[in-house]
Amino acid sequence: MFLQLGHTKLDVYAVARQFVKECYAAVALFPFEERFILSQQIKRAALSVYLNIAEGSSRKSQAERKRYYEIARGSVIEVDAALDVASDLNYCSQESLKSLGEAMSKCFKYLSGLINSSTI
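Given the sequence above, the corresponding structure tokens read:
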């Protein structure tokens, strides 16, 4: 927000930011009793994606950056798994999460590209 560092110019950073917003919007529709359980886990995992991209981008070594991007990608997978449970419990449907699914797929793709790149 205040520091105009290199990571803020990365496409993956913008995509992850949208992913976080989509996750927060989706869990806002979950039942009240889920506000401290599944909803919070999804929010934490989504935020972890965004924050690990930012922190990883500040690391000096390629290996360190790659590790943070791997953690971020793991958090994307965590959100996907949590949404499976939410769907099984009828808190949401795949149709209602279309834009979230698109943001998730894009985020996963960008992170995978960064991880597999030889010049992270």
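The chain has four helices and no strands. Try to locate this feature in the token string yourself.
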